Amino acid sequence: MLRIKRVPTIVSNNQKEEGEESARHGRGCGRNCLNKCCIQGAKFPLYGFKRMNKMINDKDLLSDCNRKPQVAFLDSLLLGEWEDRMQRGLFRYDVTACETKVIPGEYGFIAQLNEGRHLKKRPTEFQVDKVLQPFDGSKFNFMKVGQEEVLFQFEEMDDDEIQFFPNAPIDIENSPSVVAINVSPIEYGHVLLIPRILECLPQRIDHESFLLALHMAAEAGSPYFRLGYNSLGAFATINHLHFQAYYLAVPFPIEKAPTRKLTTFDGGVKISELLNYPVRGLVFEGGNTLQDLSNAVSNSGICLQDNNIPYNVLISDSGKRIFLFPQCYAEKQALGEVSQELLDTQVNPAVWEISGHMVLKRKKDYEEASEENAWKLLAEVSFSEDRFQEVKALILEAIACGNDEKGNVIHSSIEGADGTSQCPKVGAMNKGSNTMLSGKQDCLLLH
Amino acid sequence: MGLGIHRCTEDTRRRTRRRTTKTTMESQLGLIYQSFNARYPTWVRETLDELPNNFTITDPCISGHPIVFASRGFLKMSGYSKDEVIGKNGRIFQGSDTNRRSVMEIREAIREERTIQIKLLNYRKDGTPFWMLFHLSPVFSKEDERVIHFVAVQVPILRKLRRFGAGFGRNGGNSSEDGSRLREVMFGSCRREVCTDSVAEMGCVRVLDAFVEPDNIGSDIEDSCEASDLEKQEAVTAINSILSVMTHYSKLTGRLICGKRCNSSGMGLLGSSLNISLGRIQQSFVLTDPHVPDMPIVYASDAFLRLTGYDRHEVVGYNCGLLNGPDTDAEDIFQIEESVRTEQACTVRILNYRKDKNSFWNLLHLSPVRNASGKVMLLYCLSTYSIII
C-alpha cells in the first residue's frame, strides 16, 4: 500500500559523526550493527527467488499468467519496507520532497534539486585512481550499519517456486545477501543490494554477484526499477561490494538512445554500441539464459577492472537490457582538465547521472538545467572515440575468452584470483602509475 | 507494519493456490467480459469480426492490461486461438529478437495515452518471427475523458528480398544492381495494381518467389525491413474503421467514446498508468481535484463503489457531498471543508448515505497529495465503514 507522507528528518544514532558515539555497555557495541558483536540472533525477512534455468520467455507467461506470487516483491516487500523506514525517520532527508522535473528536449533528461544529499552524504574515503583496492575494515562499510537499515535477505533457493519467510534468522555460515536502505537516497525506494555482506567483498564485480543483481531486477519485474553499479574511480563512495536500485516511473534518456548492433555471442547475448548519446557505451541484451547475459557483462566488467579502467553499469528493462560505460571524469578532474564551470556544479557523474537522472546541488543549476547543459557535462565523462574503440576491442575479446570456460564460474571473491586469469590480458596493467589509463605502453591520453 | 504471511504446509499451499487461481481467473474473465458489455451492445463483437484487419483491443483498467478482443485476422496471423489470447497481455507475442527499445516506446505511448506507429518483431504460436507495423490508438470515454481501451492494429510488413539466385545475373558484380532494379520494377507494378489487400500482395510476392532464392531468415533479422507507405496507410485506415464501429455502437448504450480527448480539462489529470496502479489498491477511497470549483471526484476505487452502491459514472465528476444526507452533521462537513482549505490532513466520522438512501457511519480520512514541487494536486479521501458499538 503506497502512501505519500511528509516525514521530518531525524538522524538516527548510527548516522551521527563517529566522534560523538559513546561506548555503551550491554549487547555488543550497542549500535545494533551487523558485525560479530551484534549479529547473533538477528532476524530479517527472507525472500528466496527461484533459480532461472532458462530465460523467461514471455510465451511461458501464457500458462503462468494468473498465478500470483505470495509476496509482491517490489510493491509489498521492497517499497513497503522502504516506506516503513521512512516513517521511522531513518533517512537523512525526505527525498520525496525534492523537486524533480523532466527537462524538455529530445531525450528528456531528469533533473532533481537535492541539496540535502550533498551536505549529508558520506564523503569518499579512498583514492580514486585505482579501480581495484582491497577491503579495509577500518573505513566505513556496510557491517557498520544498524540492523534497522536492512530490509530483507535476498537469496537464491533451489525450489521451483518463490519462498518467503517474514522472520528468518541470518545464517552467518552462509553469508547471505541483503537489501538495505540508502540513507542518502536520490529517489523513491532507493536501496542497496549487498551480495554476501558478511564476506566483506571489495567493490568489484564478480560473476555470482552480478547474477544476483540481475535476478533482483527480474524479480522486481518493473522497467522503472533499475539497478546501478559504480566501480571505484567511477564515483563509488564505499569500497564494500554493493549495487544501488530505485524506482522512477519515467524512461531514462540512455534507454531512448539508438544502438548499433556489433555482434551476437554463442550464448545468444547481443552486444550493441550506443549511438547519438554523450557517453559512449555498450548495450547487452538477450542471452539463452539469464546466466549467459550475466556472464557477458561480468566478464566485461572484470576485464575493465583488471585494466584499471573505471566504469559504470546500468541494469534496466527488468534485467533485459544492460548498459556498460567506461568513464574518465575523475581522471580528467585529477589532471585539471575539467572546466571550472562544470566543477562548480559539483555533480559527480555516476551511473544515474550518466543514464540521464541528474542530481543537482545548486538551485541555479536546477533552474537553468537544459538538455544542452546535461549533454555538455556528460560528454566530459565519456571516453573519446579512439579510446573507446580500444576498450571495446578489449571487452569483446574478454567475453569471447570467457565463453570458452562456460562451465567454470570462477569465484572472484578471493583476493588476487579472478575470472580473467586464464584469458590473456591485452596490454599489461600499468603498475605504479598514478593515472588510470588503459593498459597500453604509450599511455594514450586522447580526447 | 509487517507482512503477515505464514509458512504453511506444502499441501495447504497447493490447495489454496488452486482455489485462488480458479477464483482469480473467473473474476478476471468476468472483468474482461464486462469491459465490453458495459459499453457496447453484445453484437458489437460480430461487427468487429467482420472487419478484415488484424487487431486487438485491450483494457488498461484491468490489472495486467489484458486483451479483451482479438479479431479473426489477428488470430489467423498469430496462430493462436481466441481462448489463448483473451486475458493475456500483448507481450506474449514478443520474443528474444524483439527490439527492447521499441517495446519501451510502446509502453511509454500507453502511459502517455497517445497514438504510436512502430515496426515490431512478433512471434507466432509456432515460434516463427514476423515483422509487422504496429499502430496503437487510445479510446477515451466521452463523459470523464479516461482512457478505457486501446486499439492495436498489426499490419504484416513484407520482407524485401535481398538477392537473386541462379535464375538471374550471372554477370558477377552487376547482377545485384540489375536484380534490384528489376525487383523494384516488379514490386512497383505489383503495388500499383493492388489496393489495400495485403493478401493480394502476398500473392504477388509468391510469384516472384519462383524466380528468386529465399533469404536466410536466421541472422541479421534486425534491420531487415521498413514499412511501406501503403502499409502505413493501411494501418491508419484500419484504426479509423474500428473506431468508427466502436463509436457507433457506444451511442446505443449511451456510454459514448471517442478517439481523441475532447477537451483538456482537469479530467485528464490521472493518466492511464496511475489509474491502473490505483486500481490495485484494495481500499475504499476517492481522489478529488481541489483546483476545480466544485472539487469533483476524479477517481473512485471499486471498493468505494461497492461501499456506496453507486456506479462509477454516477460519482466521477461529482462532489463528495453526494454522500451527505438529511442527518449528516453540518459540523462534520465544516471540519472537512476547513481541512481542505488549509491543506491539512484530517479524520472525521461522518454520517453518509448510500445510493439506496441507507445511512452508514463513514470514518473518513482526508490527505493532500502533493506533486514534485510540493503543490497540492489531489485530495485523497479514504472511507472506512465504521460500526458504533
What's a quick, concise take on this entry?
With 447 residues, chain A is α+β, with helices and mostly antiparallel strands. Chain A has helices at residues 36-39, 61-64, 73-87, 115-120, 207-220, 253-256, 290-306, 329-334, 340-345, 351-355, 363-367, 371-381, 385-404; strands at residues 43-50, 100-102, 110-113, 150-157, 163-169, 178-181, 191-194, 225-230, 243-247, 259-264, 269-274, 282-286, 311-316, 321-326, 357-360.
Fill in the keyword field for this structure.
heterodimer, A: 447 residues, alpha+beta, HIT family, subunit A, 13 helices, globular, disordered C terminus, B: 389 residues, Beta-Lactamase, 2 domains, six-stranded antiparallel β-sheet, five-stranded antiparallel β-sheet, 11 strands, 21% strand
Describe it for me?
Chain B: InterPro entries: PAC, PAS, PAS-like_dom_sf. Chain B: Keywords: Chromophore, Flavoprotein, FMN, Photoreceptor protein, Receptor, Sensory transduction. Chain B: Pfam families: PAS_9. Chain B: Residues 63-113, 297-317 form the PAS domain. The complex is a heterodimer of chains A (447) and B (389). Chain A has a single domain (36-55, 71-433), classed as HIT family, subunit A (2-Layer Sandwich). Chain A has 13 helices and 15 strands. Chain A has helices at residues 36-39, 61-64, 73-87, 115-120, 207-220, 253-256, 290-306, 329-334, 340-345, 351-355, 363-367, 371-381, 385-404; strands at residues 43-50, 100-102, 110-113, 150-157, 163-169, 178-181, 191-194, 225-230, 243-247, 259-264, 269-274, 282-286, 311-316, 321-326, 357-360. In chain A, the strands form two sheets. Chain A has a twelve-stranded mixed sheet. A three-stranded mixed sheet of chain A has the order 2-3-15. In chain A, 45% of the residues are buried. Chain B is an alpha+beta fold and 389 residues long. Chain B has two domains: 13-159 and 228-258, Beta-Lactamase; 281-384, Beta-Lactamase (2-Layer Sandwich). Residues 1-13 and 162-220 of chain B have low confidence and may be disordered. Chain A binds chain B through residues 1-2, 4, 45, 55, 57-59, 61-62, 65-68, 70-71, 75-77, 80-81, 84, 87, 97-101, 164-166, 223, 249, 251, 255-256, 258-259, 261, 268, 285-286, 317, 320-321, and chain B through 1-7, 17, 20-21, 24-25, 28, 64, 84, 87-89, 91-97, 100-101, 103-104, 107-108, 123, 222, 273, 277, 280-281, 283, 367, 369-370, 372-374, 380.
